[in-house]
Amino acid sequence: LKEENASLRSKINKLQIFSETQADKMRKLERKLEENKIKEEKEARDLEAMVQHVEQNLQLMTKRAVKAENSATKLKQENSLLQVQLKNYKTENEALRSGQSASLAAVKQNADLALQNLLTVITNSRSSIKQLLSGAESLQLVADLLKSIDRISEV
User: HEC string of 57-116?
Assistant: First the structure.
């Protein structure tokens, strides 16, 4: 009985040591799990902040694109109006050349003024169209970035 008792005590000691080792491992794993949870929460907050920032940029770029489109539309309308005026001036110029009442110098001055106005509108239109294209490229970049963020969050 003494031998059996000693044997059982030995086994109990070994099991206690094994149990303590397992408990230590368990505590370490729990700490590591908690650290990972904290890290993941921080990454999620950072990702959310980045998404909000991107959304704000997207809204701003959308406003800029709408403004550029409106500006381009106005410039196109002004361009059309000036083209009509130019056509009228040319018609008047032709009428004056064929012998009608006004002086050729006044007609030439009107045509030059219309041409200058037309060139100004064309220059402004080109600038607005370039801004619109730049805004569209920025919006595409933001859309691509949002797609990448979605992929990252899925991973």
Answer: HHHHHHHHHHHHHHHHHHHHHHHHHHHHHHHHHHHHHHHHHCCCCCCHHHHHHHHHHHHH
The gap from C-alpha 99 to its chain's centroid, in whole angstroms, comes to 61
**Would you state the pLDDT for residue 139?**
85
Using alpha carbons, select from 56, 52, 51, 61 the residue that is nearest to residue 150: 51
- Spatial distance between the Cα atoms of 90 and 105, rounded to a whole number of angstroms: 13
What confidence score (pLDDT) does residue 97 get? Answer: 72
CA 134, 137, 141, 147 dihedral sign is positive
pTM: 0.41
Closest CA to 122 of 69, 81, 91, 89: 81
- Around Cβ 155, how many Cβ atoms within 10 Å? 5
Over residues 64-103, the pLDDT tens digits come to 989 989 999 999 999 999 999 999 989 888 877 776 555 6
Task: Say how far apart CA 144 and CA 24 lie, in whole Å.
Answer: 47
In order of 85, 121, 123, the CA distances from 76 in angstroms are: 14, 8, 11
Whether residue 11 has pLDDT greater than 80: yes
